[in-house]
Design brief:
Strand content of chain A: 15-25%
Number of domains of chain A: 2
Radius of gyration of chain B: 22 Å
Order of helices and strands of chain B: HHHHHHHHHHHH
Number of strands of chain A: 12
Oligomer: heterodimer
Radius of gyration of chain A: 22 Å
Largest sheet of chain A: 8 strands, mixed
CATH superfamily of the largest domain in chain A: Periplasmic binding protein-like II
Largest sheet of chain B: none
Order of helices and strands of chain A: HEHEHEHHEEHHEHEHEEEHHHEHEHHH
Number of strands of chain B: 0
Number of helices of chain B: 12
CATH architecture of the largest domain in chain A: 3-Layer(aba) Sandwich
Structural class of chain A: alpha/beta
CATH architecture of chain B: Orthogonal Bundle
Chain lengths: 354, 275
């Protein structure tokens, strides 16, 4: 490899030295992403390459890798040559930054909207006609309801599910989530936390399959006919109900859910080594997600765009308004949530104990 | 001039290359596993490997692997027997099919098995009990991924045993069952045992296929390899290595026991002469 790098840089140097010719570069970027973004980035990669070629003359081809968010993050830490990462939650990019694996510590400030060009939320997917009468989180713990969710220990999407359920339970008890950080309500908070624990414990008692990733769960629910309700990314639920198997599933929007912000970041450490053209292309790749074209593709693939200008009404209709809480407000950020709930011996492990 | 010890040339070169290869492919990864373990105190190591959830996972993994291997022992032997002793149209195809579980990515196998054996699946709908998303699903996945070990170890041994041997036994008055038990089985027993042992060891570590059919419910259908992956996900490499070391030691012990047993067996059959 190094020999090739040397050669490549020699070529680059000689090209610069000549500098008489306008030089169009060929750049290859690797986007390491999480499970359900396959379709989104397939479409976006194509559109971006065309746009970028026109814009800069450089031709960019983008390779795509999809997998569970946590394991993707781990593979980048262990040396996968990602140029950009587009993962399910900030914690997974923090993990890369914390281990100095190529992402700067302040990565989340480098792009608008917490570096999340799209959002989504957590909803329920039920079978046609909603036979078990599921309308809100409270219905999931009823007897005889089989719940399908991925495992929070291995899946980023499942962690969002868990936190959404927890937030709903807190809100049930507190009435107003504004009381969360108000010391005057410490007692009430204690009771609400206990209530949330019981609720989430019961919820996971009704879970019959804990797949290792979000796509696995969707497959289990849709293809293999398991369970009565799937707790899923809105994007995956829409994909299943609008595209995969139209008419056989219904989406149930709960009274409260969580604002999921899947973030993106450039892996400077890797892309710098590829040279200036690659770095420019990687920057443009992430920035273009925020452009009208990028936002349109985002909406096409059932993610909620940050900017709804120019997106047709019938697409926006798919994203109903609902009360959305966010991780920073309710849980004090991902690092804290991860430690409290999902780390070894955390709340999730405690709830699973017999 | 001392005369050369070995008639075959190239001993030092080939042994050297073999050892380098073994070091890079086998010992280096194992070494780094042990290196990870060095970060743990004994107390911590012990508390990780005896965590109730991990203990439950060993029980599930070992029982499922045992059942799958037993199943493979019977049906692998049957397949090998059919492939060696009979000629029939499509035999070559059947022979090639036997290797499919090795060629197929295990995740593909897992997803396929889960679809087939789900309660509405092509096979699952006819069964009165749950296979996919229960521990039986784990057994099916393990049996699928490890059956070639039995077939491919028994097959060549069986080929060396000419049909005239069992014919002779039968003409000398042995019943079919007796001939099988006293003539054929002793001959293929070591190979059958090795194949089954390999299948078992492979099943202990199987992840890709199992994970899609198991359901992964804590204490019920969590296999040990999932516990390892879970710890990796938390970036807790030493803990992952600790759990992995349990599987590794179990597999090594098993293979060692089989090897020792086999050596004894050969000595019993062939006396002390070299085989």
């Amino acid at each position: 490899m190094p020999a090739r790098h040397v050669l490549a840089s020699l070529f680059a140097a000689s090209a610069l030295g000549a500098s008489l010719f306008a030089h169009a570069e060929n750049v290859t970027l690797l986007n390491v992403s999480y499970d359900p973004t396959r379709e989104l980035y397939q479409q976006y990669n194509k559109a971006f390459s065309q746009w970028y070629q026109k814009e800069s003359g450089d031709s960019v081809s983008i390779q795509q890798s999809n997998g569970g968010s946590g394991s993707q993050s781990r593979s980048v830490i262990e040396g996968a040559p990602a140029d950009v990462v587009t993962l399910a939650l900030a914690y997974d990019i923090d993990a890369i930054a914390d281990r100095n694996a190529g992402v700067p510590k302040d990565w989340q400030k480098q792009l608008p909207d917490n570096s999340s060009p799209y959002t989504s939320t957590i909803v329920f997917l039920v079978r046609k006609g909603n036979p078990k009468g599921i309308h809100d989180w409270g219905d999931l713990t009823k007897q005889g309801v089989e719940v399908i969710t991925p495992n929070p220990k291995t899946s980023g999407g499942a962690r969002w599910n868990f936190l959404a359920a927890w937030s709903w339970a807190l809100k049930q008890k507190l009435g107003d989530l504004g009381k969360l950080h108000d010391p005057r309500y410490a007692e009430e908070m204690k009771a609400a936390t206990a209530y949330a624990r019981d609720y989430v414990r019961d919820l996971f008692k009704n879970a019959s399959v804990l797949d290792s990733g979000a796509r696995g769960s969707t497959n289990t629910f849709v293809k293999n006919g398991q369970g009565d309700v799937l707790i899923a990314w809105e994007s995956d639920a829409l994909l299943a109900s609008e595209k995969l198997d139209k008419g056989n599933y219904e989406i149930v929007v709960p009274s409260l859910s969580i604002l999921t912000e899947p973030p993106v970041a450039k892996v400077e450490g890797n892309v710098k080594r590829k040279g200036e053209a690659a770095e420019k292309a990687a920057d443009a790749y992430l920035k273009h997600l925020y452009s009208p074209e990028g936002q349109r593709i985002i909406a096409d693939n059932y993610y909620r765009p940050r900017n709804t200008d120019g997106i047709p009404q019938q697409e926006l209709r798919l994203f109903p308004k609902l009360e959305l809480v966010n991780v920073d407000e309710v849980f004090g950020g991902w690092a804290k949530a991860q430690k409290t709930f999902f780390a070894d011996g955390g709340v999730f492990d405690q709830l699973q104990q017999r | 001039m001392s005369k050369p010890r070995r008639i075959l040339p190239g001993f030092h070169l080939s042994l050297g290359i073999a050892l380098v290869y073994v070091s890079i492919i086998l010992l280096l990864p194992l070494g780094s596993l042990v290196g990870q373990l060095a970060d743990l105190s004994w107390a911590r190591y012990w508390s990780i490997i005896t965590d109730p959830r991990n203990l439950a996972s060993y029980r599930i993994t070992v029982l499922s692997a045992a059942l799958a291997s037993l199943f493979n022992m019977l049906f692998g032997l049957l397949c090998a027997w059919v492939l060696v002793r009979y000629t029939f149209p499509g035999k070559r195809i059947l022979d090639a099919l036997m290797d499919l579980p090795f060629a197929l990515p295990t995740a593909v196998a897992g997803i396929t098995i889960s679809t087939l054996y789900a309660s509405q699946g092509a096979i699952g709908q006819w069964l009165g009990f749950k296979v996919a998303y229960s521990w039986l699903g784990i057994v099916v996945a393990m049996a699928f991924t490890s059956v070639p070990f039995v077939v491919r170890t028994v097959q060549p041994v069986l080929e060396e045993l000419p049909a005239s041997v069992d014919e002779a036994a039968i003409t000398l008055g042995a019943s079919n069952a007796y001939a099988f038990r006293r003539v054929i089985l002793p001959f293929i027993w070591p190979a059958l045992l090795t194949g089954t042992g390999l299948a078992f060891a492979r099943s202990l570590g199987e992840y890709g296929a199992v994970i899609f059919v198991a359901g992964n419910m804590p204490y019920k259908t969590e296999v040990t390899s999932l516990m390892v992956v879970t710890r990796l996900q938390e970036f807790d490499y030493p803990a992952a290595a600790a759990i992995a070391s349990v599987v590794l030691i179990a597999s090594l012990l098993l293979l060692l026991v089989i090897n020792i047993y086999q050596a004894r067996f050969f000595r019993r059959i062939h006396g002390n002469q070299h085989v």
